[in-house]
Each structure stands twice: as C-alpha cells, then as structure tokens.
Design goal:
Length: 319
C-alpha cells in the first residue's frame, strides 16, 4: 500500500452524512476574504473555525447540517505544512474529517528524542482496527523555514532572530493553548530550525513505514495537482474515488497580482520564497543545505513529478 506525510481522518459515517446533506447547502453563505484564501493556499495554520467551504461554491463558507463541527486536530503535520488546505479539500469532497485523538502538531520523534512516536504508534494501531486511514503533510525545507520565520507559532522563540543567529541556536517549543500541560516541550539542537524540519520529517516517515494506514503527502503536490493528490489519498484510504473533485477556488482578481493557488504555485515553481521577508533566507541557503538530513529526503514520496525537488535550492556540493 502507498505510504505518504499530513494527518486527516474520515469515517464512513461522515461520508454518509455528507452525501445526505449535499442538497442542504442552499443557505446564507459568508464569503471567505481573499486574504484568508491566499493564506490557506500558502499553507498557513490560521483555523477556519466552525465553518466549511460549501461544495459547489468553493469561495464561500457555510456550516453543513449533520456534519460534526471540527475546530482543530483534524490533521497531522508541522506548522504551515498545508494541513488546513488538506482539511478544506477533504471537507469539500467527503465531509468533515474525524477529530484525531492527539495534537495535530505533536512531535513525531521517538520519546528518547522528546517526541511522542510511541503514543502515535498506539493511536495509529487503534485507528487501523477501525479501518481508518490517516494522512500527514511535509513541505520543502527551505520554503518551510521561511514560512516559520514569518509566523513562528510555538517556534517563536527560535524564529524572532536574524538568520545568522537562527543558524547557530538550538530551538525549543514555547507553550501554546491546546498543548497538553503534561507533555514536555520538544527541543532541537543547533541549528534548531533545521533540525525541527529534520526530526518531524523523519518521524512521519518512520511512522508511515510501520503503519500502512498512514500516508505522507507533500504540500507542493497538493498545490500543484490537488485533484491527483486527493484522489491518491481516497484510493489509499479505500474510499470511492470521486469522478470530479470539488476545488478550493481562488477569488476573482481585481488587480494584476497572483492570488490563491496561482500565487502559491508561482512561489513553488519559481522559488520565490528565497527572497521573501525583510531578511531573505537566500544568503543562508548553503548553510541550511549543509545541515539538512538528505538521507530522509529521498524517502519522501512524490505524486507530482513536475514539482521541483527539495534539493533544488541547494548547491550540489552540499548534497
């Protein structure tokens, strides 16, 4: 069975409820602001709380009667890895995912490294007995670190520095609401931000190797070819593959700038993230590439071959 990286659950009951309510969507709708839709395609973690995109009207938000309202914990993936984009696509096409029994950003490393892999092993095994499949997302390491630099979430203590300091400093999670108080805060050796990416990605791949109900997916595949990506997970999970995928559409543009998927796809294909923010990452790419664990990158599954390889930002001497 295919194995891929993001975590999202969907029960047969949710599928049935979604089918029953396809004709119940003619109700007042609230337009999603263009800025929020752009952030969704950019992989951001801003939660679209208590509402869902309406099938057939992807630029509108609407509550779906009979479906569970899920505010968080419906996917697994590190911050800004596209978990919310995956969740909206899944809701549009199959109904609201089930809630995962753990924090979606829980460190997937082994316990001896400050993670919760053993706990996740137990939960994934339980979900397997219930015929439930799970998906976890990963992202290009350079692009991912740029995104964390713009908004650090629990990594804010690691990202509110110059890149020169980030590359020589360890990193430790800060407490955030929803993180269980009894869980120790994960820490990562210098260069901390690079090792956050290394350890999370390695953890997801290790879990996928052990559990055939966990699929690892690249954020870039979802942006580049959402139809192929969603159909791949539907097939992986044993669901009926939709004949036609309902898409998360970009809002109509009233200017000449890219928006939504178009803008995010341009960042991926043209490597525009190298020059984002007031202090761009481009000058520190060689040092980052030197510290990326390339042995795990080769194991990340690819759905869309046209997506630039994760090592495409790096000088060949560091690979």
């Amino acid at each position: 069975m295919m194995k891929f990286s993001l975590i999202s659950l969907l029960s047969g009951m949710a599928l049935a409820r979604f089918a029953e309510n396809q004709n119940s969507l003619d109700q007042p709708q609230q337009k999603l602001p263009a800025a929020k839709l752009n952030e969704l395609w950019d992989g951001k973690e801003d939660i679209i709380s208590s509402t869902y995109f309406a099938a057939g009207n992807p630029t509108a938000l609407v509550g779906i009667p009979g479906l569970p309202v899920v505010d968080e914990n419906t996917q697994m993936g590190m911050f800004d890895s596209g978990t919310n984009l995956m969740r909206v696509y899944w809701t549009l096409n199959f109904g609201a995912p089930d809630v995962l029994p753990f924090w979606k950003h829980a460190p997937p490393m082994k316990q001896e490294l400050g993670g919760f892999q053993e706990l996740l092993d137990e939960k994934l095994a339980q979900l397997k007995l219930q015929n439930r499949s799970v998906v976890a997302t990963v992202r290009n390491p350079i692009s991912h670190m740029v995104s964390w630099k713009k908004c650090g979430y629990s990594l804010v203590g690691c990202t509110n520095k110059q890149w020169s300091d980030i590359m020589t400093s360890p990193c430790q999670f800060k407490y955030v609401q929803g993180y269980p108080e009894e869980w120790p805060l994960a820490s990562f050796e210098a260069p901390g931000l690079v090792n956050v990416w290394n350890e999370y990605t390695r953890g997801y791949l290790e879990l996928a190797e052990k559990h055939d109900n966990l699929m690892v997916i690249r954020y870039e595949d979802l942006v580049s070819d959402p139809e192929k990506t969603i159909k791949a997970f539907a097939k992986f999970a044993g669901f009926k593959v939709p004949h036609k995928i309902v898409h998360v559409e970009s809002p109509a543009k009233d200017h000449g700038n890219p928006a939504g998927r178009e803008a995010s796809l341009s960042k991926i294909e043209e490597h525009e993230y190298l020059y984002e923010t007031h202090h761009p990452i481009v000058d520190f790419v060689p040092k980052i590439c030197e510290n990326i664990d390339w042995s795990i990158v080769k194991d990340i599954p690819k759905l869309v071959e046209s997506v630039p390889d994760y090592d495409s930002d790096c000088p060949k001497s560091y690979l």
